[in-house]
UniProtKB/TrEMBL annotation:
GO terms for molecular function: epoxide hydrolase activity. Gene3D superfamilies: alpha/beta hydrolase. InterPro entries: AB_hydrolase_1, AB_hydrolase_fold, Epox_hydrolase-like, Haloalkane_dehalogenase. Residues 28-275 form the AB hydrolase-1 domain. It comes from Cryoendolithus antarcticus. The keyword Plastid does not apply. Keywords: Hydrolase. This is AB hydrolase-1 domain-containing protein.
Amino acid sequence: MAPSKTHHFATIDDTSIHYFEIGDPNLPTVLLLHGFPSSSTQYRNFAPLLADKYHIIAPDLPGFGLTKTPSDYIFTFDNLAKTMSGLLQLLKITKYAIYIFDYGAPVGLRLALESPDSVKAIISQNGNAYEEGLGHPFWDPIEKLWNTNNSQEARDWLRDNYLTLAATEMQYSAGFPKEDLKLVDPSQWNLDFTQNQAGRENQERQIDLFYDYRTNLSLYPKVHAYFREKQPPVLAIWGKGDPIFVPPGAEAFKTDLKDAQVQFVDAGHFALETKGGEIAEAVLKFLGNVSF
């Protein structure tokens, strides 16, 4: 019988974190960190493919999904990582692998910098750690936000153009083979939009995170130093058609990691929607050689 997925809420500093769990807690833990503009639901079909051999935890980051933050929560990647660190401490998880995607990458890499001996392996699926991975022209309006010091004009442009249902659908369709688009569940981008982007409060926190993303680039030198010093096992498995985080970002892991494994699948940003089985097979093979 396949393992059952269970849903939980945990409170860290007045933030109620929703996460799902699947697999025997006595097995090695894999932490699945989602990206913008989704939530743990992006792993709904993927997590069960790993759960016979691994204990899976998939939280909703603050500002996403069913996680609820207090009114004074400041939306920065430092704070997202602090909240996730608190969850791991509460659950007494001291060693684990991380699967990082999109926003999950700067969160997970901060966890690794905080406690490098805890993170036994990193699977990066379109989870960026190098400037070479930033796809243009997608990042141009976000870089304008950085370069204009969080100007209202740049914020409003992003609100009107990136925080829309059409822009969310684009993330689920751009770069995918046309014949695979029928595999993508439309309810996903509709949920991502209504749950995480619709309404002024959601918009403000998402634009705050767009602005704070610049701090991730500033952190890259520390991340690269960690890679060079600790040489953690890394699998960079990338949807090769992703216009947001492009293939050179996957290849760049080889710069600092002598044994980095780089693999591409024929998909776009949300590659798990169409290539979940192929990615799960690669992840299981990779993790099979990791010492927890």
